[in-house]
């Protein structure tokens, strides 16, 4: 009777470990739970910089003198 | 009794096989995780290794006046004229005045002190970043503030290069037409998608009508054209 219990426990352990193993393999092969990147992925991140504006100024210059008629 | 023993052996074998399978799966997962996060890397065979390439591209919003001056230098309105017209799009020489941009002479006799351009030229604005931009234009003073006198005019005129602002994205003033400057921040929106490209450009010309009665001075009058770009 004790041996039978031991056998049952061992079989349960074996089943649990087999299930865990299957879950891990399925997850890696199907893209579940963060395993979605292929092995040779080059990861590119693209985000907006904090600088949302760019300002530039050009200048206009003119010097206005009196004309020779005495403006 | 014999059956129990055989069953026990089978169960032990099952456990051992399961342990081996589980350890194999966990080892494979560990390697896979290293690939994802760029860890130390794992050799899968004696002549094979793995490297990680990781590049981060930051959005860069930059506009620049590649031509940022329109300097007419010294001059005066001709006698008996109500005003003089200075148009950067059509001439380097004033109408009804003696300003001449091409004359860089440094003395007190007009013309002189010009920026030296010999062909009509305005501001040239480029999008040298890596993203398209909404573009606004304004000045820091209006016609009356810049040229205080009788009926002064201070206008700008936007034209797009072959690459710059497509017709469908042009807003505000009609391109190629002079309109009064705007001093209100952030300015007049003139383009919805100012294209980023080394070839991208917008030209902005300036027209001044200088009244005869603007106060004269040896000190230059200056105004700024301010371009503001925002992410589109």
Question: Summary?
Answer:
The complex is a heterodimer of chains A (71) and B (232). Chain A is of the alpha+beta class and 71 residues long. In chain A, 41% of the residues lie in helices and 24% in strands.
Beta-strand fraction estimate of chain A: 15-25%
Shape of chain A: rod-shaped
* Total number of beta strands of chain B: 11
Order of helices and strands of chain A: HEE
**What number of domains of chain B?**
2
Mean pLDDT of chain A equals: 70
The amount of helix of chain B comes to 10-25%
Oligomeric state of the chains present here: heterodimer
Q: Output the structural class of chain A.
A: alpha+beta
Describe this structure in words.
The complex is a heterodimer of chains A (71) and B (232). Helix content of chain A is 41%, strand content 24%. Chain A has one helix at residues 2-30; strands at residues 43-47, 53-64. The model of chain A is unreliable at 35-50 (pLDDT under 50). Chain B has 232 residues and is an alpha+beta fold. Chain B has two domains: 1-54, no CATH class; 63-231, no CATH class. In chain B, the strands form two sheets. In chain B, strands 2, 4, 5, 7, 8 and 10 form a six-stranded antiparallel sheet that branches. A three-stranded antiparallel sheet of chain B has the order 9-6-11, with no helix packed on it. The radius of gyration of chain B is 35 Å and the shape is rod-shaped. The interface between A and B is large, with 49 and 80 residues. Strand 2 (53-64) of chain A pairs antiparallel with strand 11 (221-231) of chain B.
Main attributes of the structure:
heterodimer; A: 71 residues; alpha+beta; 41% helix; B: 232 residues; 2 domains; six-stranded antiparallel β-sheet; three-stranded antiparallel β-sheet; 2 helices; 11 strands
Detail the topology: elements first, then pairings.
The complex is a heterodimer of chains A (71) and B (232).
Chain A: H1 2-30, E1 43-47, E2 53-64
Chain B: H1 2-37, E1 54-58, E2 63-67, E3 69-75, E4 83-87, E5 123-127, E6 133-139, H2 143-146, E7 153-160, E8 179-180, E9 188-194, E10 202-211, E11 221-231
Antiparallel strand pairs in B: 2-5, 4-10, 5-10, 6-9, 6-11, 7-8, 7-10
């Amino acid at each position: 009777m004790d041996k039978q219990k031991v056998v049952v426990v061992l079989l349960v352990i074996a089943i649990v470990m087999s299930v865990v193993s299957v879950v891990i393999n399925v997850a890696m092969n199907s893209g579940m739970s963060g395993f979605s990147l292929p092995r040779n992925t080059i990861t590119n991140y693209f985000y907006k910089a904090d600088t949302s504006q760019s300002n530039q100024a050009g200048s206009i210059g003119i010097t206005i003198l009196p004309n020779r008629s005495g403006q | 009794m014999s059956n129990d023993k055989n069953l026990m052996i089978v169960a032990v074998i099952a456990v051992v096989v399961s342990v081996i399978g589980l350890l194999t799966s966990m080892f494979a997962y560990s390697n896979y995780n290293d690939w994802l996060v760029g860890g130390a890397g794992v050799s899968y065979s004696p002549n094979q290794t793995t490297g990680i390439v990781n590049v981060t591209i930051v959005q860069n919003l930059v506009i620049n006046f590649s031509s940022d001056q329109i300097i007419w230098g010294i001059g005066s309105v001709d006698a008996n004229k109500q005003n003089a017209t200075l148009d950067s799009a059509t001439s380097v020489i004033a109408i009804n005045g003696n300003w001449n941009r091409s004359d860089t002479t440094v003395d007190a006799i007009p013309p002189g002190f010009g920026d030296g351009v010999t062909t009509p030229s305005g501001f040239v604005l480029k999008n040298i970043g890596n993203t398209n931009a909404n573009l606004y234009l304004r000045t820091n003073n209006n016609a009356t503030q810049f040229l205080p006198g009788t009926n002064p005019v201070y206008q700008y005129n936007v034209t797009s290069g072959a690459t710059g602002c497509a017709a469908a994205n042009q807003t505000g003033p009609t391109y190629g037409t002079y309109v009064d400057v705007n001093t209100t921040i952030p300015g007049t929106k003139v383009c919805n998608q100012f294209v980023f490209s080394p070839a991208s450009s917008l030209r902005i010309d300036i027209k001044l009508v200088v009244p005869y009665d603007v106060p004269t001075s040896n000190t230059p009058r200056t105004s700024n054209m301010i371009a503001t770009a925002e992410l589109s």
